[in-house]
Amino acid sequence: MGVRFFDIRLQLRDxxxxxxxxxxxxxxxxxxxxxxxxxxxxxxxxxxxxxxIKEDADPENSTVEFNAAVEEKxxxx
Length: 77
Prior knowledge:
alpha+beta; 4 strands
């Protein structure tokens, strides 16, 4: 049994959530993070995940609100 903590920093780009850290692009989408976390939890059902999600850069070419985009992704899981 264990607890995992993830500090996920995102940027909206073209209405999609990209993982960034300040000005560094992590070359990863939020969808990919959620897939990996979901797979981990399925494989290790006694584990618990806490995820801090933060908008870490200004949006680029996006028309949706950050909070709405994150909520949509989480609800679609």
